[in-house]
Amino acid sequence: MKHRGTAALVVLAAMMFVPMTNASAEDTYADLPISEPPQGASSIDVAVYFADNMAFTPQWRLGNFIRIEIVVLDVTGLSNPSELDIEESNLYTQEELRLNPELLFDTNMVSVSEMWVNITSDSGKRVADWHSDFVTGEGDMTVIREINGEGHLIYGGRWDSSEVDKGGFYTVSVGLPSTYSVKWAVQHDRGVVEEPSEDVSLTSDDPVEEPPEAIGYMAVPGGRGGISADTNEAYIVLGELLDSSGSGANGGNGDGNSGGGNCHHGGKR
To answer: Is the peptide bond before 19 cis (omega within 30 degrees of 0)?
Structure first.
């Protein structure tokens, strides 16, 4: 796949040791090459993957901050999200990709030139609007991208939900330039997850059991997500936005860090 170099990469370690936070264009560790269509093509067919913390409830939080985490995947020639191969995103470590970012082109991950992320309430009110151009540095550069601890190229940031109504449902939409033709909104397929029995207390001190290992990808279920072909966007409706003081409102590994990470984009190495 042909590519060109990028302007400075905006990075902060979301899924490594400290929480993802919005940063300025000066906070960089390397340039990333940009994925371009193959010769003779005008676009790359892509799927927008939404991380587990966005696809499953309760919301993973750090106080009032909710992590917005996205991966863009090449789906050229595929007819169904289930045909996506998780292992194609797990070929290299974080360090290998940092030292040689062009190894990204051996994977099915896509390094996009530009991204818009907006969040709207169930009443249609726009409550967040992010935009980054990773080639020119234009826009407010509030969409952060990085190679995370799992060796995945992720995009997103931390949404401060302190000023919005709790108990509502919010939609996260991701827009890409026409160079990247959005075909599906996808999430992990974790097989059949049994519902907890009725005698399990939601306030129990017992540790929460981890969901089954991801076995692949699936389209975000209808009514909870999809694409808008006219605007080249993928979207997902987050689970109910709980008050951060409630039990279970703060997911993740519980220590304020995100080293465990909910954007574990496939199986273990």
So the answer is: no
Digit-coded pLDDT (tens) for 133-158: 999 988 888 999 999 999 999 999 99
**Other Cβ atoms closer than 10 A to 193:** 10
19/156 Cα distance (integer angstroms): 12
pLDDT tens sequence across 4-43: 332 222 222 222 222 344 443 333 444 799 999 999 999 9
* Dihedral angle sign, alpha carbons of residues 207, 212, 216, 219: negative
Burial class (CB in 10 A: 0-12, 13-18, 19+), 67: buried
Which tokens belong to 28? 């960089």
CA R_g for the chain: 18
DSSP states along 14-81: TTTTS------TT--S---PEE-PPTT-S-EEEEEEE-HHHHSSSPPEETTEEEEEEEEEE-TT-SSG
pTM of this prediction? 0.77
